[in-house]
Design brief:
Helix content: 55-70%
Number of helices: 10
InterPro entries: DUF6197
Shape: globular
Structural class: mainly alpha
Order of helices and strands: HHHHHHHHHH
Number of strands: 0
């Protein structure tokens, strides 16, 4: 579909509704992440103070982030419209490399995985395409995406794989499960 036709038929109200779901999901995920003063500290300052005072309570189990999948229309809009969502909904903020990798995995998990292209006509994304969505929405920047790519590449190198990660993604025998596992393994490594 030509870009001019999409621009003519997509109303501001439609864009606001379609984009808000994806932005809200990402913000919910990021809000649930724990931040500490130092990467080697595994507890927040409040938890350390509470523990030091002897009032530590058992921590509730941390549930995996829950994301609802935006409608089909939001997934198939052209990438050049993604910054509009950022402007309309105040989306975007700095994220760590680990958060970027987790969000990349969540996008692939929720919207589908593609091979041989950045995105499918139905909105599924390859590893690199999912990273691109996050950057266009303002969750991290090009430097964050490059650092995340280096982290993914380091995991592949440790496995003895010399292909670039985007070529590895496109190998005919690759599965979505392998891609998700790689992303989460790289995210774990970025946290340590």
């Amino acid at each position: 579909m030509p870009a001019s036709l999409v621009a003519d038929t997509v109303t501001e109200e439609f864009l606001a509704e379609a984009g808000s779901v994806l932005v809200e999901e990402i913000e919910r995920y990021l809000a649930g992440q724990r931040r500490t003063a130092h990467p080697l500290v595994s507890k927040t300052t409040a938890e350390l103070v509470e523990e030091a005072l002897g009032a530590a309570r058992p921590a509730a189990p941390v549930a995996a982030p829950v994301l609802s999948v935006p409608g089909r229309v939001a997934r198939v809009l052209p990438d050049w419209l993604l910054p509009v969502f950022r402007q309309a909904h105040g989306a975007g903020r700095g994220v760590s490399v680990a958060e970027h990798l987790e969000l990349t995995a969540l996008l692939i998990e929720r919207h589908g995985w593609a091979q041989g292209r950045l995105r499918s006509p139905g909105g599924a994304r390859c590893l690199l395409g999912a990273q691109r969505v996050l950057v266009r929405l303002g969750y991290g920047d090009e430097a964050t995406a490059r650092a995340a790519g280096r982290r993914v590449q380091a995991v592949l190198t440790a496995r003895g794989i010399t292909q670039d990660y985007y070529e590895w993604n496109d190998h005919p025998d690759r599965t979505a499960g392998e891609v998700l596992y790689l992303l989460r393994q790289a995210a774990d490594g970025a946290r340590s």
